[in-house]
Amino acid sequence: MEMQSPGGSAGQSHPLFGGALSAVLPHSATDISELREIPDNQEVFAHAHTDQSLIVELVEYQGQVADQDAARYHFEDIAGSNKALEPGAFEVTSVVPLPKSELCLADCSSAWMLTGTQCVSKFNEEARNTVTLHLGLFRLPQFSTDVLITFNDPQSISPDSSSAASAGTHREPWTVQDFQRLLQTLTLHNPELFG
Hints:
Belongs to the MOG1 family. The protein has helices spanning 67-81, 164-167, 176-185; strands spanning 13-16, 21-24, 29-31, 42-47, 53-60, 90-97, 110-120, 129-140, 145-156, 187-188. The protein is α+β, with helices and mostly antiparallel strands and 195 residues long.
């Protein structure tokens, strides 16, 4: 096993949506579609040893939402589906534009990375876990599509949560750098995906 230099172009590009897109996924990523049914517009990966997960999702382009507000729009949408919409249950800490010069997906009209937190409970348990959410958003108005990439990074696992047992064994969790590399390497191979 050769050592990868930090910051190097480690990792192979992984086909997404049957090869219509591809990106470099972080190490230890397990394709959840092999375990359970995933909607056609999503690709879901979980870290083999932590509770971290990554979702690549094709959603309808929201033309009424300005580019600089779009990441927050989707973040609040996720908070809604996570039932984390009460006051204080979610917070946006930063939204930054991603320079197109650093992206493989040059077709996007703009790209953004949002970082925030949500308090979510798993499987309708009472116990709530604080999850740091990194959200990458690529806007493709010409395809009426927003590509949304979500990195769920649970911070404090409540001891009452079913995930508590696995939290003690933190083996090389994914980092924001892993996520940024995924965003930067996202590549479109077949626009018919959006048709």
